[in-house]
Amino acid sequence: MEIRQASLDELLAVLTQIPEMQQLNDVAALQARIGERPYLALVAYRQQQPVACKLGYEWDQHTFYSWLGGVLPEQRKSGLAQRLLEQQQLWARQHGYQTMRVKSMNRYPNMLRLLINNGYQIVDYEHRGSPDNAKIYFAKSL
């Protein structure tokens, strides 16, 4: 397995294959969200095939926001999400960020476990009609 920095086009090619992320199908929309802020797009490859990705950007000068990520269904539970998270945190630390922020939802229990197991703490909660749609905000000091 290899993890490389990627373009937004390369990242989007992976996202569109992940069922939970298929609504994200426009590089311009990704770029509009990021704006002019520094960002990191990572793509993980197995046998030269893209199988997972992670995208984050600068929240403020001290904080890096981990925005999107996912692993193809047939590649899940293989440690890819952990490796991508570690790579993103390392990059953020090397670029002077002191805190990581991320948001997830109850409907993604594997992501919640990954974050908690890696020292992320819940810092806020937003009820959005049903428990599955609730947003859970996490932060971690680097």
Automatic annotation (TrEMBL):
Q: Mind listing the UniProt keywords for this protein, alphabetically?
A: Transferase
**UniProt cross-references to InterPro entries, sorted A to Z:** Acyl_CoA_acyltransferase (IPR016181), GNAT_dom (IPR000182)
One Pfam match:
Acetyltransf_1
Q: Which Gene3D superfamilies match?
A: 3.40.630.30
For this chain, one GO molecular function annotation is: acyltransferase activity, transferring groups other than amino-acyl groups
For the N-acetyltransferase domain, which residue ranges apply?
1-142
Question: What is the protein's given name?
Answer: Acetyltransferase
Q: Which organism is it from?
A: Idiomarina xiamenensis 10-D-4
